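Run log // design_07
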């Protein structure tokens, strides 16, 4: 399955999700591209939209290699087998973790004006991204949401992800909505005709249009 862009992917996902959250639903999207997808789901289902901002922790000498992820409150998740292979320990990564925590705070303030959330406890929460590769940032987001908000139902909705990643994530959620799980997966962008980078300003504008109500 090839999507023309993130808007089309969001509309197709929304079409598969009618009735998933009958009451008190909320979309939490992962910036930046996930916000475009999440906005289409939020519009279609009549839900507010907010963001969740986990950040990948890249290997010290190869930032593209994900060795873990960090959440808003500094909780970290590491691929310990990969750390062992690279001869690294968690303490070696303190500087990288702190750097990503600062970036999370910067983006929270930039996108939504602050780092504090309304009380989303007990809601039906849909976590959205524009696709998943290794799944570490999504895993961090799901576990943080589960601990922070104790949702009545936790749903992960993405247009595309590899099967092995989905196998690792399926037990983290109550429902998984995925349009394509190809065996031949190299990168999320290969499944979009237009995978141009979403800008900070686009994220800010989308959130202004669908701001989650304050508790």
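design_07 sequence
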């Amino acid at each position: 399955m090839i999507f023309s862009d993130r808007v089309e992917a969001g509309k197709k996902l929304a079409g598969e999700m009618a009735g998933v959250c009958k009451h008190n639903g909320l979309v939490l999207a992962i910036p930046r591209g996930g916000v475009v997808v999440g906005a289409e789901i939020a519009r279609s289902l009549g839900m507010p939209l907010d963001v969740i901002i986990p950040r990948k922790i890249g290997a010290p000498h190869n930032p593209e290699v994900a060795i873990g992820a960090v959440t808003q409150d500094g909780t970290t998740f590491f691929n310990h087998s990969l750390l062992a292979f690279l001869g690294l320990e968690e303490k070696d990564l303190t500087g990288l973790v702190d750097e990503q925590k600062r970036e999370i705070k910067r983006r929270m303030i930039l996108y939504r004006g602050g780092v504090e959330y309304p009380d989303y406890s007990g809601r039906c929460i849909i976590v959205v991204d524009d696709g998943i590769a290794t799944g570490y940032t999504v895993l961090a987001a799901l576990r943080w949401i589960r601990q922070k908000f104790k949702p009545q139902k936790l749903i992960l909705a993405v247009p595309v992800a590899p099967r092995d990643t989905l196998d690792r994530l399926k037990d983290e959620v109550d429902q998984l909505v995925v349009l394509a799980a190809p065996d031949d997966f190299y990168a999320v962008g290969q499944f979009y005709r237009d995978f141009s980078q979403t800008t900070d300003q686009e994220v800010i504008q989308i959130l202004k249009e669908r701001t989650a109500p304050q508790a």
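Residues 1 and 130 are 14 Å apart (CA to CA).
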